[in-house]
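[step 3/7] inverse_fold.run input=structure_tokens len=209
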């Protein structure tokens, strides 16, 4: 899996990948046949990029960091805990939260397709759907994490969770040191999409965005 800027997924240059060209062609055909409205599609994409992901998931993680009772409920039943907390008007079913510890680091993949908690993390990154990530995340998770810039102690076990059509996972990363007394809003600014997939860590509290 080639190393690149996994956090931003910026596409350098003007060339489109083969997958992007196919998506563009499919969108054109569907638009011409009147099956989709380009304006509505753009609005939907913008909503998931700017209003949903990864802000919703970050709010859940921040609340778990700040509220031990909510964290216990979240790990017991993710969907029910998020719904009962009244964080959002609507919550998808089958959200499972797993928490990182000093002894275990969790990582999420979907080996069969690209199942992903859209309502928590927004649009899935391109690499999440790629065959190299989906295969190597299972066979060599420590190596994949290293490519993302995450070097874990040898004593830390890595557990890989495989999403399905019935289950969606969100990782609750370890709370950064030095954030005692922070508000949930301030904590949420440290939570990245990759940290909630398990391929990254929260932002350094001493290096704000």
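[step 3/7] decode complete -> sequence:
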């Amino acid at each position: 899996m080639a190393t690149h800027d996994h956090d931003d997924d910026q596409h350098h240059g003007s060339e489109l990948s083969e997958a992007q060209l196919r998506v563009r062609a499919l969108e054109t055909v569907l638009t011409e046949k009147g099956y989709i409205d380009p304006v509505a599609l753009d609005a939907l994409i913008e909503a998931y990029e700017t209003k949903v992901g990864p802000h919703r998931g970050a709010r859940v993680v921040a609340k778990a960091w700040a509220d031990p009772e909510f964290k216990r409920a979240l790990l017991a039943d993710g969907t029910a805990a998020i719904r009962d907390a009244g964080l959002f008007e609507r919550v998808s079913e089958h959200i499972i939260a797993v928490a990182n510890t000093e002894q275990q680091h969790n990582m999420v993949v979907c080996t069969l397709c690209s199942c992903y908690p859209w309502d928590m993390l927004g649009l899935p990154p391109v690499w999440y759907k790629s065959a190299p990530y989906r295969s190597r995340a299972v066979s060599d998770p420590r190596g994949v994490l290293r490519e993302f810039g995450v070097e874990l102690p040898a004593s830390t076990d890595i557990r890989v969770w495989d999403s399905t059509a019935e289950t969606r996972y969100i990782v609750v990363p370890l709370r950064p040191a030095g954030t005692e007394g922070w508000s949930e809003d301030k904590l949420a600014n440290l939570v990245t999409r990759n940290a909630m997939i398990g391929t990254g860590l929260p932002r350094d509290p001493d290096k704000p965005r």
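[step 4/7] annotate
The mean pLDDT is 83.
The first strand starts at residue 95 and ends at 99.
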